[in-house]
């Protein structure tokens, strides 16, 4: 969702990708490495060809050095994404996706596209899914009122995109619906 500069007060997409890089992901190491301690924890040992779980940032580093293959998460498959897209188009609510699916999928498709089956179709499904979810977000914001607004199953990138507009709109609605007996009965 493209927003005017005045409403861009949220975290940037690259910052969200950095946060998502703490997620654990499976790899198939091509090198042996003992258990190694980092600030965020100890990971390893890595023993080819056994799979190992490490943070995304470490997997990216090893992948760029050609020292591992990244195992795509099960949700980054054509079957899973197609089922979620079908659900998104047929159901009123948001389909359930991993909270950081947008950030993780972007990083994996940028760095490890060769480890993901049929990347063009996966990219296309992710794009369609994003567009369908954005359309639902816009519909929900069109019905914005001071009461409860439930947008369950939104992901971090989607929350980040609508946050500035939502906060601004709720401020205006609160101002418009102020109780006149509270002392401020004139609108600016």
What does this structure look like?
This protein is mainly alpha-helical and 188 residues long. The protein has a three-stranded antiparallel β-sheet with strand order 4-1-5. A two-stranded antiparallel ribbon has the order 2-3. The chain has six helices and five strands; from the N terminus they run αββββαβαααα. It starts with 12 loop residues before the first helix and ends in a 12-residue tail after the last helix. The model has no long low-confidence stretch (mean pLDDT 85). Helix 1 (13-20) packs across helix 4 (101-111), helix 2 packs parallel to helix 4 and helix 3 (78-90) runs parallel beside helix 5 (119-142). It has a domain at 5-21 and 73-141 and 149-179: Methane Monooxygenase Hydroxylase, Chain G, domain 1.
Order of helices and strands: HEEEEHEHHHH
Distance between the termini: 30 Å
Mean pLDDT: 85
User: Number of helix segments?
Assistant: 6
CATH architecture of the domain at 5-21 and 73-141 and 149-179: Up-down Bundle
* DSSP strand count: 5
InterPro entries: GINS_A, GINS_bundle-like_dom_sf, GINS_Psf2, PSF2_N
Domain DNA replication complex GINS protein PSF2 N-terminal: 12-71
Domain GINS subunit: 75-171
Keywords: Chromosome partition, DNA replication, Nucleus
